[in-house]
Structure formats: structure tokens, C-alpha cells
Specification:
The chain is mainly α. It folds into 2 domains: about 30 residues; about 180 residues, no CATH class. Helix content is about 65%, strand content about 0%. The chain has 8 helices and no strands. The termini are far apart. The relative contact order is 0.17.
Length: about 240
């Protein structure tokens, strides 16, 4: 090999080595968890989703529903019903709507599972305790509403909500000043289901993040972990 060829070979070898060193240095300086963030974040989201649905199971006494008020236009009528001893009718309607919202969420569980599994969290995520919930809600709330609306209709068809609404309407007609009660049950149940789910998801995410910090970086098991509730058989107790 000629002297010139050997020089060119050494220059080429040095260039390759420098390039490899630069790549290694760049990787070494990258934030420790950055490359793994989507996987870890999705793992956390799946755990939070599981805990959220379990926490909203009808059989769990600690389950809490988001407070979604009935339309503001009904507020004077509802106050009048409470003031004349018919508040129980309003409470019965509210209870049926919350129950229907949980059942609607149960019906869309398969879709939710697919959506959570396929979700790719944005990077970088904001440094907040509910960052994943906020990101997932922004990406999927509209489609979840589309899924929940027919589910709410099916659940309401088999519930006592319409009877409870009729009772409220009857009470409104008995007031000294008769009132008319107009209420879209499907819309109310859909919005209540959405709010309950995302509130529960945020609560579970915050709990899991706190647990991870306590355990030194491990996500641990989701709170309230266990078998997830499935759709109730038709004709079953609601």
C-alpha cells in the first residue's frame, strides 16, 4: 500500500472514530429517562385507567361521581321542589343519572382499553401530576363522547331514570307556580360519565405518581387493583 493510501486510510479511520465518539457522547448526555418516557408513561396510563374503572364500579362504596349539575335553567324549579318537600324526587333522579353514567362507562370499557393501549403520550410531558390525563383527554374526549352517547341511550332504556324524571315533572306541576321540566337524559348521562371518568383517571394518576416517588421510582400496583368489571348481562341487576 502506498504512503498516500495509508494516510487516506488513517484519516478515514479517525473520522469514523470521531463520529462514533460524538454519537456516544450525545446519547450519554441525553436525559436519563427521555428515550423510555413513552413506554413508561403508557404503562402509568394503563394502570391509572384500570384503577379508574374499578373505582367507578357500582359495587364499590367508595366510588365517587363527578358533580355535573343539571341545566341551570332548571335550578329555580329544583329549589322550589326542595322547598316544598319534594326534594326526594330530585335526589332520586340525580341518583339514577349517576348510576346510568357508570353503566355507560362499563359498556364502553373495550373501546377505552383499546384507546389507552394505542395512545402514544406526547414528549416532553408537562411536569404536572395529571399530565397524562390531560393529554389523553385532549386526544380522545370527543371520540369517547361519541362512544358513550349510544351506550347512555341503551342504559337509560333499561333504567328507572325516565320514571324519576316523570316524578320530577309531576312535582313541578304541583308547585304553586307550575313549571315545565325539559331534560335530555342521554346528554346529561353522557357528560356525567365523561366527567366521572376523567376525574377518576386524574385521581388515579396522581396516586400512582406519588406511589412511584415513595417507592423510589417504581410504579407499583395500581390502587384498587383487581379484576375489572365487565358489561352486566342483560336482565341483570342494575
Amino acid at each position: 500500500m502506498s504512503h498516500a493510501a495509508r494516510i487516506r486510510l488513517r484519516v478515514f479511520s479517525s473520522s469514523v472514530a470521531a463520529s462514533m465518539a460524538l454519537i456516544a457522547l450525545t446519547c450519554a448526555r441525553a436525559p436519563a429517562g427521555e428515550a423510555r418516557l413513552p413506554e413508561k408513561a403508557n404503562e402509568l396510563l394503563r394502570a391509572a385507567w384500570a384503577g379508574a374503572l374499578v373505582s367507578l364500579d357500582l359495587k364499590r362504596a367508595e366510588a365517587r361521581d363527578a358533580t355535573v349539575a343539571l341545566p341551570a335553567a332548571l335550578e329555580p324549579t329544583l329549589r322550589a321542589l326542595h322547598g316544598t318537600g319534594m326534594g326526594g324526587r330530585v335526589e332520586a333522579l340525580d341518583s339514577e343519572l349517576s348510576r346510568a353514567a357508570r353503566l355507560a362507562l362499563r359498556e364502553v370499557k373495550p373501546w377505552l382499553e383499546d384507546a389507552v393501549t394505542a395512545f402514544v403520550p406526547p414528549t416532553p410531558l408537562p411536569d404536572t401530576e395529571d399530565a397524562l390525563t390531560v393529554a389523553f383527554r385532549a386526544a380522545q374526549e370527543a371520540e369517547l363522547r361519541t362512544q358513550l352517547t349510544p351506550a347512555a341511550g341503551r342504559v337509560l332504556a333499561e333504567s328507572s331514570a325516565q320514571g324519576a324524571l316523570d316524578s320530577v315533572r309531576d312535582g313541578a306541576q304541583r308547585l304553586p307556580l307550575r313549571r315545565t321540566v325539559e331534560l335530555d337524559l342521554v346528554s346529561v348521562v353522557t357528560e356525567r360519565a365523561l366527567a366521572s371518568f376523567f376525574d377518576a383517571l386524574a385521581e388515579q394518576e396522581k396516586s400512582l405518581r406519588q406511589q412511584r416517588e415513595t417507592l423510589g421510582g417504581s410504579y407499583g400496583d395500581p390502587p384498587n387493583s383487581g379484576s375489572l368489571p365487565g358489561p352486566e348481562p342483560k336482565g341483570g341487576s342494575r
